[in-house]
Each structure stands twice: as structure tokens, then as C-alpha cells.
């Protein structure tokens, strides 16, 4: 008989009973998933990235199936921060879910405005700052691909939000030196990192012989990007071993989740897998518990970064 595993985890000063979270943008504010399981039974609900104003997103079509994954160009459609704080957040807290609010802006000022509005809300476990979207002030360059812009966003959010709420900076793998970007945002005030956002891709439609997505390019997610996520998490954990990582990218089984944890993730977000199977988070959580027990781990946290150990010592 295997002993029970303590699945609890922390991201900076936020505590979660289990390490399996939703991924931003893949479960909206959790309502659809609540038909399938109690939201308090997973580690946290990470909301779709909220912006200051309601948005319709990018032109259709916005999704394409690809081998082992999907390409999306939703373009941060959503109700805007005021409607989110008035409706979605209270509903999530009523469900006793732990809530990680994801924010996104087109300018550095927009992130600070969002942080100012969130400062007055209570019950939030952490703030995920999605800097993997284009900075309109800088000719559309993605914030997270520019070390200086990344730092300035996080610095503005940290100064506005104060010291208590953990800030998780969500980074893009589409850069040459990911540990350098990671160090920059940690120095600017991020307590944890979310790795990885989608990878930029494109699909050409052979009938129209033009790019299939209305927005031309899109974000690739799902099993196809898991090795990129494992590499990114491993590299960043090696460079910054004390900075907690919320890992994601292609997790659709307990085995996938364990791989990201061994690379250095303290918690896991599940995105694309929930589209095909709305109970994926619960299955992954149960499988992960079994896999940890079978490998003799008494706590999930003992497995974090285990792939980095030096057996010669
Ligand atoms: C349809 C869709 C919408 C997404 N929207 C967001 C978003 O609003 N904010 C964000 O930070 N990431 C967003 N993502 C990225 C996911 O949170 C996640 O980083 C990525 O999909 C990799 O995980 P997965 O392979 O488990 O889906 C979105 C992904 C998908 C597929």
C-alpha cells in the first residue's frame, strides 16, 4: 500500500491544496468547468487575461487544429476589469475557488491601471501578469520578448499593488535568452514565473492558399509544445532555483505534469487538454498523486526540480 502524498504547494506566500490549476484563457472564469467538478477541488482557477476595457478579440477564424496541438488567435476577448470585479470574481469566491487573476495590457500604464483596480479587491490568491502580448507603444513588439519592457511592466505593477499579493510574471518562450528575461522581471518585483505562454505559429489554408487565421499568426498550444515547456522550466529553475514556477504547456496527463514538476515547476496549469476533456484537471491531479506515491515522494514539493539533482554528492 502506498502512503498518501501531501499535494499542497506554494507560489511565494500563496498556499494551494493541490498543484493543478486551470491555464489562463482556457476556462474563462471557470463557469463552464463548474458543471463538471467543484472548482475548489483544483489548486486554483487562473482567469482569462483581463484588460481595462471590454474587447471583442481578433477577426475569425480564430482556431486551427494542428498536429498534436492547436493554434489560436482569440486576441484577449473579455468583459474588462470592472465587469470582472463586479461579476466573475465574487462568483468564483462564492464557489470557494482559489483565484489567480491574470491581467494584460497594451501599454505599461494599462497594467498599472489594472493593478490599481485589483488592489481594492479582496480574496485573490495571486496576480498573473501576462506580458506575452504586444506592446502597442513599441510597434507591436511583445513585452516579454523585450527585457526592458518586461521589467518596466512588472516594476509598475509591483509599485502599484504594494507588497502583499504575489506577482507571477507570465513569459514567452519565443526569446533567445529566457533566464535573462526571467532574472529581469524577478529583480523588478515578480515573486514567481508562469512558463510558458503559447509559441508563435501559422497555418496556411490550402483551399484559399492564404493564412488560415483571421489574425494570420496564432499561439500554438497542446502536446506539441510540451518539450519547449520542459526546457524553459528546466533552464529557468537552474538559473533561479528559489523562484517558484507555475509550469504549463501541453500537460494532458499526470505523467506530463510530473515531467514539468521534475524540471522545476511548483504548480501546473492545464489549458488545451480541458477543451477535449472538461474533467482533465481532476484526472491529471489523481494520476499525479499516484505517480508521486509510486516514486516514494511523501510530498509533491519534494519532487519540484528533482531532475536537477547531482547524484555525485
Ligand atoms: C484558446 C486559448 C486562449 C488563451 N488565452 C490566454 C490568455 O488570455 N492569457 C494568457 O496568459 N494565456 C492564454 N493562453 C495560453 C495558456 O494559458 C497556456 O499558456 C498555453 O495554452 C499552454 O498550455 P496548454 O498547452 O496546456 O494549453 C491561451 C491559450 C489558448 C489555447
Automatic annotation (TrEMBL):
It is found in: Cytoplasm. Keywords: Cytoplasm, Flavoprotein, FMN, Oxidoreductase, Pyrimidine biosynthesis. GO terms for cellular component: cytoplasm. This is Dihydroorotate dehydrogenase. Binds 1 FMN per subunit. It catalyses: (S)-dihydroorotate + A = orotate + AH2. SUPFAM superfamilies: FMN-linked oxidoreductases. It comes from Candidatus Planktophila versatilis. The lineage of its organism: Bacteria, Bacillati, Actinomycetota, Actinomycetes, Candidatus Nanopelagicales.
Amino acid at each position: 500500500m502506498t502512503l498518501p502524498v501531501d499535494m499542497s504547494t506554494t507560489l511565494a506566500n500563496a498556499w494551494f491544496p493541490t498543484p493543478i490549476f486551470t491555464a489562463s484563457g482556457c476556462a474563462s472564469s471557470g463557469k463552464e468547468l463548474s458543471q463538471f467538478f467543484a472548482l475548489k477541488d483544483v489548486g486554483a482557477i487562473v482567469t482569462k487575461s483581463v484588460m481595462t476595457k471590454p474587447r471583442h478579440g481578433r477577426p475569425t477564424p480564430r482556431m486551427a487544429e494542428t498536429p498534436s496541438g492547436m493554434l489560436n488567435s482569440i486576441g484577449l476577448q473579455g468583459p474588462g476589469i470592472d465587469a470582472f470585479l463586479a461579476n466573475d470574481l465574487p462568483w468564483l469566491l462564492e464557489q470557494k475557488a482559489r483565484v489567480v487573476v491574470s491581467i494584460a495590457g497594451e501599454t505599461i500604464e494599462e497594467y498599472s491601471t489594472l493593478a490599481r483596480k485589483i488592489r481594492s479587491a479582496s480574496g485573490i490568491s495571486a496576480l498573473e501578469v501576462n506580458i506575452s502580448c504586444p506592446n502597442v507603444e513599441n510597434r507591436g513588439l511583445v513585452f516579454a520578448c523585450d527585457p526592458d519592457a518586461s521589467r518596466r511592466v512588472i516594476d509598475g505593477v509591483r509599485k502599484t499593488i504594494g507588497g502583499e499579493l504575489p506577482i507571477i510574471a507570465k513569459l514567452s518562450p519565443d526569446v533567445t535568452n529566457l533566464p535573462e528575461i526571467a532574472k529581469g522581471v524577478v529583480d523588478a518585483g515578480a515573486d514567481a514565473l508562469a512558463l510558458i505562454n503559447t509559441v508563435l505559429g501559422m497555418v496556411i489554408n490550402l483551399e484559399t492558399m492564404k493564412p488560415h487565421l483571421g489574425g494570420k499568426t496564432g499561439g500554438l498550444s497542446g502536446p506539441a509544445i510540451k518539450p519547449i515547456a520542459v526546457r524553459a522550466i528546466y533552464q529557468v529553475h537552474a538559473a533561479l532555483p528559489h523562484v517558484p514556477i507555475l509550469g504549463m504547456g501541453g500537460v494532458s496527463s499526470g505523467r506530463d505534469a510530473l515531467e514539468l514538476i521534475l524540471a522545476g515547476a511548483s504548480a501546473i496549469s492545464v489549458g488545451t487538454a480541458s477543451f477535449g476533456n472538461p474533467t482533465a484537471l481532476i484526472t491529471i491531479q489523481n494520476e499525479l498523486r499516484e505517480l508521486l506515491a509510486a516514486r516514494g515522494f511523501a510530498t509533491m514539493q519534494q519532487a519540484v526540480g528533482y531532475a536537477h539533482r547531482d547524484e555525485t554528492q
